[in-house]
Structures are given as structure tokens and as C-alpha cells.
């Protein structure tokens, strides 16, 4: 019996190495293997109106990830954090954005009632993988909320 166990362990000792060799390239894949984000743009609006946006994004392979959005306001001397939003989601290649796509939806209702001023948002996605997580970060255009 002991000989059979020893033979089995000797025979299958390479399995962990095979798994590592097969998964190692996944750690080298860029975030763009899962998702490309080419542009995030927000339209100017009036205070109290929905802020409409367009996003040029393509999900190539399904993944689970978490996201964060930082809304910054220009104060005349620099960009000051106005609001932060975060969450997680399952991303799919066949998923589509709602029409119209709004800042309220984009931030899951966490940042949308902006006071008059100039703004820019930064969106960051972290793609949860079995190996090192991959990250995509995109800044939007500068947009204005008027009174």
C-alpha cells in the first residue's frame, strides 16, 4: 500500500508545476485582454439636471471587478476632491449602458448632484484575477455645471 502511494505521489508531483506554467502567462496578460476603455466624456449641464456622459469601452472577456470614481472640482488653483464613489460588478462582453448614461448611474447614485463649477472625473477599475490584479484608470474631459 505504501509503495502505491509513493508511486502515485511520484507520478503526480508535476501537476502543481503544470498548473503554474499554464497560469503564469495569465499574470502577464495586460488589463486590455479583459477590457479597453478609450474615452469617458461628460456633457456640460445646469445645476439640478442629469449629467449625461458617453463612454467608449469594450469588455472582451467576462470578469469580476471593483471600481471607483473620484469627482474633482476646479477651485481656481487646482483640483479638489468633491466626491468619491465605489462598488463592484460582474462585467460581460454583451452588457450595454443605459440610455441615457448619466453620472448618477455611473457612480451608483453616490455622486451626481454637483454644485455649479468645473469638474473632471477619474474612473478606476480593478480586474480581480487569480494572479496579480489588473487595473484600468481613465480621466474624463473637463465639464461644467452651470447655475
Outline the structure in words:
Strands 2, 4, 5, 6, 7 and 8 form a six-stranded mixed beta sheet that branches. A hairpin with a 4-residue loop joins strand 4 and strand 5 (79-91). This protein is of the alpha+beta class and 147 residues long. The chain has helices at residues 2-12, 15-28, 103-106, and strands at 35-42, 45-46, 53-59, 63-74, 79-91, 117-127, 134-139, 143-146. It has one domain (31-146): Immunoglobulin-like (Sandwich), CATH 2.60.40. The chain has three helices and eight strands, in the order H-H-E-E-E-E-E-H-E-E-E. It is elongated and about 85 Å long.
Write out key terms for the chains shown:
single chain; 147 residues; Immunoglobulin-like; 6-stranded mixed β-sheet; two-stranded antiparallel sheet; 3 helices; 8 strands
What does this entry show, briefly?
The chain is an alpha+beta fold and 147 residues long.
Tell me the major beta sheet.
6 strands, mixed
Q: What is the level 1 CATH name?
A: Mainly Beta
Structure classification: alpha+beta
Q: Give me the CATH architecture, please.
A: Sandwich
Average pLDDT rating: 89
How many structurally independent domains? 1
Number of helices: 3
CATH fold assignment: Immunoglobulin-like
Q: Gap between N and C termini, in Å?
A: 83 Å
Give the assembly state of these chains: single chain
* Spatial extent as radius of gyration: 22 Å
β-sheet strand percentage: 35-45%
Following the backbone from N to C, one meets helices and strands in this order, namely: HHEEEEEHEEE
Ranges where pLDDT stays below 50 over 5 or more residues in a row are none
Question: What percent of residues adopt helix (DSSP H or I)?
Answer: 10-25%
Please tally the β strands and state the result.
Answer: 8
